[in-house]
Design goal:
Elements lengths: L12 E10 L4 E10 L5 E12 L2 E2 L3 E8 L3 E8 L7 E10 L2 E9 L10 E3 L4 E5 L2
Antiparallel strand pairs: 1-2, 1-10, 2-6, 3-4, 3-5, 3-7, 7-8, 9-10
Protein name: Phenylalanyl-tRNA synthetase subunit alpha
Length: 131
């Protein structure tokens, strides 16, 4: 019976951290985005984030992102500079093709930095993609 359980693999969905100007605070901030690089929309998207380093942990944040269109993206949250020294995890769940998908994204501590910037799909910006 266990062999009959299908666990779909979430492909072409990414979490990226972008270093961008914030007009409200008049400074550059690190912002997390969920990117849908699929050819179809993803629905009822939920992102749960937390950070950890040894026995220290951040609060767990839950974000209801709704539906994200094909080749679209949505901002998840702003990341404070202090938590860049932590491992930052994002658990993302969504519906697509009448199936429930779940994927874990990890940014290892100190990996979110200007020196690790690279091209980000769909957004046409530079940032750091999660593993």
């Amino acid at each position: 019976m266990k062999k009959d359980i299908e666990i779909p693999i979430a492909k072409n969905v990414h979490v990226a951290i972008i270093h961008e100007w914030n007009d409200e605070f008049l400074e550059k901030n690190w912002n997390a985005y969920l990117i849908n690089d699929r050819d179809s929309k993803i629905e009822a998207v939920i992102a749960v984030s937390n950070g950890y380093e040894g026995d220290r942990k951040t609060s767990t944040m839950r974000h209801g992102l709704g539906d994200i269109p094909a080749k679209g993206f949505r901002k998840i949250e702003i990341l404070h500079e202090d938590i860049l020294a932590f491992n930052n995890e994002f658990f993302v769940t969504f519906f697509a093709d009448d199936k429930l998908y779940e994927k874990r994204f990890l940014f290892e501590k100190y990996s979110i930095s200007e020196s690790n910037l690279g091209p980000i799909p769909v957004m046409e910006m530079e940032g750091v993609l999660a593993k």
